[in-house]
């Protein structure tokens, strides 16, 4: 790899994006399959590089600077690489997010407007230490016709470099530089200034990191900061169902953003509901923190104001009572992060009220918050989760990496014909037809 | 009107947005009709306030600080108010952008996912001096269920205050404070900090102003900075058609963002094409600025590097020759603002290449750039034009003021069922059905 500045890399990506946008679905899928094959063929090379990262990680583990979990996430193996190659092939199998005509409208005779799905252009990504993240992001970008800037964690630098080289070489039929690897932390700050060249930033990482990105760039940012999700157990809930949902939402995988952080219980069912669920939580090692009223019923630590606004990401749960559905809605509106909320109730009207009032990306009735996920939602590969409300919201699939473009096919039409005293009226008729077939 | 701080107004709008999101289409349309009626009933009051603004504007005109055009735009009349009331009624007539189910997907038996269109929440708007802008923006916001912060130009402050009071009183059945008037310039800067409460900013005004907003907030911004549009006359163009399009694109209304600024002509047709079109432009008072090669053929001032990157917004046009289609594409990619470009050619393949290569919101074949407009595109009322690529692009209709939300209806479903060794597979079947009918 020759050394280029971050700016030179982004400029090259921008040029590549223009050509990439014209590649057909077959070409993009062939590129993906070629990446998958190369990953399998060059397994030894990847594992060798990965060992260097793991060895460095283990030294830091001994020094107490790294956790075992972090080292485990770094580590690749032959079977993991096979899974990664399979993941790339499955991205190739997905429905093409491009080459779709979204609207065809006849403005007048021989004046036809087509709104079609197109790539966004240049997407900047900053992601965590798992080396499979680089491959996944590159694959999703290629599938959606976007040039991509990849900035991985320095812990995985050897692995990332080899994976990147393999991807580059496997896609040498594509415009050079459609994928760019950025390695230095300083280069991230350089990227944030390039609002003329980067169309979208997708940071993954801690809330603080995502907020830092949002606050320091005028490039649109797609990402999620916090996931403070709620389960509300209504007074008309099936309490057995409520217990199953509340348990699953916390315990099934507590480290992720769609796990529940605060359980809201209607006061009239608290005496019956809380003791049983508290026992299940206790058996699973969940630390409970309750409001005063909760602590009169079950054994729990005291919850402070901070608890209602905390994403624990761990086996910790805060619990409070509410006196009504509106009490639950108000609590969530005040402390939630607009990610995912679930109501457990047999009363459909109340469920509708809960789901319509709350301004969260995902609102559930009688289901675990853990369903809030691109794969479970049937979106195919997940690009990320967005807690913003603009462009893409909630779990984001490949569609989130596309935008649209208007094509107008005329026959010498001018606006003067449709203006002034003898203005010709527009037809504005929708019709069936694709732009490229016209 | 009691005096509230900008923060208090935005907080009130945020609370109102939650209730407003639950209003039905009928309720929102009734609100719009009530605004239209009130505008007609209280014409005298509005005109009285408007006279104060006009008088102040005329003083500034005498002092040489205002243009006549600005004063003209400020001025309301009985018939203008009737038009404004009719505009509000026409917004009520438009297809509801909400209460639409975009996707219905069965994840498993009795586990149904609905993606539905919902309002964005709180929209902040800053607009120019025309008092009808306030009414139009408020109407579009109410139609799309959004609470709105309105900051108009100080030149129109008396008119804006009365129009705002009328809108408030006419919609007193809606949550108080769904529309908020902000009057002080300092309050704009306060708004830019409120990324916790404002979901979208829509500034209208000069490029410099829109850029200032983009650079000083982490709230998503929908707007357009520059409109540097191009017409390319290919060597295979019908030259008569090309002349009509190039003329219309510049002359029909030069002050707007979709007017052409640079004309690109294939060198092999320049000798034939340029003299005739130059004469038409001259008759219409258009100042021409050409490259050296152009000035060898027609009489024109010299175009500098700055000209290629300028939005004149006036009867000025820059012209240059290119040696190929790719030369035209490269010029537009370098200097354009991704707004609207048009190719005039009889060769469909070249048209496709032009339209696919260019990363502009609107790409036209054999039609004037002036068609790039929400009304002409058949989008109904136009919220604005976006030169960004995220969320909404090109002319933006009511849909641009909506986002979506996922509703999941379960029957006690938990994720543990679908994980691990005996994981149940998902169905992921699309079906016909609306969330509220389920």
From TrEMBL, chains A, B:
Which top EC class is given? oxidoreductase
* Domain Aldehyde dehydrogenase, first and last residues per copy: 2-286
Record's function text: Catalyzes the NADPH-dependent reduction of L-glutamate 5-phosphate into L-glutamate 5-semialdehyde and phosphate. The product spontaneously undergoes cyclization to form 1-pyrroline-5-carboxylate.
Question: What is this protein's record name?
Answer: Gamma-glutamyl phosphate reductase
| Lineage, highest ranks first | Archaea, Methanobacteriati, Methanobacteriota, Stenosarchaea group, Halobacteria
**Chemical reaction(s) catalysed:** L-glutamate 5-semialdehyde + phosphate + NADP(+) = L-glutamyl 5-phosphate + NADPH + H(+)
Annotated EC:
1.2.1.41
- What is one cellular component GO term in this UniProt entry? cytoplasm
Q: Which HAMAP family match?
A: ProA
Recorded GO MF terms: glutamate-5-semialdehyde dehydrogenase activity; NADP binding
Task: Give the pathway listed in the UniProt entry for this protein.
Answer: Amino-acid biosynthesis; L-proline biosynthesis; L-glutamate 5-semialdehyde from L-glutamate: step 2/2
InterPro entries to which the protein is assigned, alphabetical: Ald_DH/histidinol_DH, Ald_DH_C, Ald_DH_N, Aldehyde_DH_dom, G-glutamylP_reductase_CS, Glu-5-SA_DH, GPR_dom
Protein source organism = Natronolimnobius baerhuensis
Q: Which family does it belong to?
A: Belongs to the gamma-glutamyl phosphate reductase family.
């Amino acid at each position: 790899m020759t050394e280029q500045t971050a700016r030179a890399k982004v400029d090259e990506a921008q040029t590549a994006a223009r050509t990439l946008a014209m590649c057909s679905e077959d070409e993009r899928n062939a590129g993906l399959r070629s990446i998958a094959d190369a990953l399998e063929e060059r397994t030894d090379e990847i594992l060798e590089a990965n060992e260097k990262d793991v060895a460095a990680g283990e030294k830091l583990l001994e020094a107490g600077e790294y956790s075992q979990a972090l080292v485990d996430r770094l580590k690749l193996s032959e079977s993991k690489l096979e899974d990664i190659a399979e993941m790339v092939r499955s991205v190739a199998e997905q429905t093409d997010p491009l080459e779709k005509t979204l609207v065809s409208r006849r403005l007048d005779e021989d004046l036809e407007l087509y709104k079609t799905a197109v790539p966004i252009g240049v997407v900047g990504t900053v992601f965590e230490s798992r080396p499979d993240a680089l491959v996944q992001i590159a694959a999703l970008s290629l599938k959606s016709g976007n040039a991509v800037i990849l900035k991985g964690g320095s812990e995985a630098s050897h692995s990332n470099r080899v994976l990147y080289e393999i991807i580059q070489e496997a896609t040498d039929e594509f415009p050079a530089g459609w994928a760019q690897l950025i390695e230095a932390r300083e280069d991230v700050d350089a990227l944030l200034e390039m609002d003329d060249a980067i169309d979208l930033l997708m940071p993954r990482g801690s809330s603080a990191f995502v907020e830092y990105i949002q606050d320091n760039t005028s490039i649109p940012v797609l990402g999620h900061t916090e996931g403070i999700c709620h389960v509300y157990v209504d007074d008309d809930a099936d309490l057995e169902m409520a217990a199953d949902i509340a348990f699953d939402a916390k315990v099934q995988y507590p480290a992720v953003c769609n796990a529940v952080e605060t359980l809201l219980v209607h006061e009239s069912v608290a005496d019956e509901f809380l003791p049983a669920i508290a026992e299940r939580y206790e058996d699973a090692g969940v630390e409970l923190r309750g409001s005063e009223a909760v602590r009169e019923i079950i054994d729990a630590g005291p919850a402070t104001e901070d608890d209602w606004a905390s994403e624990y990401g761990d086996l910790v749960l805060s619990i409070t009572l509410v006196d009504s559905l509106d009490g639950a809605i108000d609590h969530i509106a005040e402390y939630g992060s607009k990610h995912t909320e679930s109501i457990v109730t047999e009363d459909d009207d109340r469920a509708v009220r809960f789901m319509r009032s709350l301004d969260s990306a995902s609102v559930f009735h009688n289901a675990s918050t853990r369903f809030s996920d691109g794969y479970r939602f049937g979106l195919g590969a997940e690009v990320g989760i967005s807690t913003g409300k603009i462009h893409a919201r909630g779990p984001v699939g490949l569609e989130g990496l596309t935008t649209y473009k208007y094509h107008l096919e005329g026959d010498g039409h001018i606006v003067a014909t449709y203006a002034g005293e003898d203005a010709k009226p527009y037809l504005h008729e929708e019709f069936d037809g694709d732009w490229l077939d016209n």
